Amino acid sequence: MASPKLFKQLKAKPPRDLDAVVHDLHDQAFKKIDCLDCANCCKTTGPLWTDRDRERVAKHLGMKTAAFETQYLRVDEDQDWVLQTLPCPFLGADNYCSIYDVRPKACREYPHTDRVKQHQILGLMEKNAAICPAVEHIVQKMEALYLTAGPSAESGKQSKRPRRSR
How far is residue 14 from each of residues 10, 115, 121, 122, 128, measured CA to CA in Å? Predict the structure, then answer.
């Protein structure tokens, strides 16, 4: 479970190297974790579907966009296009996605831990830690780095954190 203390601290004063740290931890996590062993994101949460997503997937399935929307999607309370049902109807029993090559942008970018400006999406990371084992791994490592940094971090001295190689 994600640490509320960690996210409160990071939101109050995001470290300058947050993106580099998260990106390095992202790379480490995905060397250990295979999404096909889990697919929890596809089973428990659905993407927001952009206009381009809906058109691209409908075309791939040989459907008109309106028919695709009627069969698979609905408009939620925020006026976003979302799946009608979960788990995702395109997820197979083997955890493979039947529309992987044309999947929605939100699916391609999930779990968003390789994006820049991580400080802007800390709330999303906190939520995703409960869904995705890779994000949970990243958050656990961040807790070790930032919550046990001790007085040197508070006094403004740099603590030892992994650097992302370029």
Answer: 5, 15, 11, 10, 19
Spatial contact of 103 and 42, defined as CB atoms under 8 Å apart:
no
**Omega before 47 cis (within 30°)?**
no
pLDDT exceeds cutoff 80 at 108: yes
Query: 1 burial class (0-12, 13-18, 19+ CB within 10 angstroms)?
Result: exposed
Which residue from 166, 152, 61 is spatially nearest to 103, judged by alpha carbons?
61
Residue with tokens 């479970």, as numbered in its chain? 1
Q: Are 26 and 19 in contact (CB under 8 A)?
A: no
Of 121, 132, 101, 128, nearest to 39 (Cα)?
132
pLDDT in tens, 122-139: 999 999 999 999 999 999
Please name the residues in contact with 2: beta carbons below 8 A apart, sequence gap of 6 or more.
125, 126, 129, 130, 136, 139
Handedness of CA 105, 107, 109, 110 (dihedral sign): positive
- The count of other CB atoms within 10 Å of the CB of residue 160 is 8
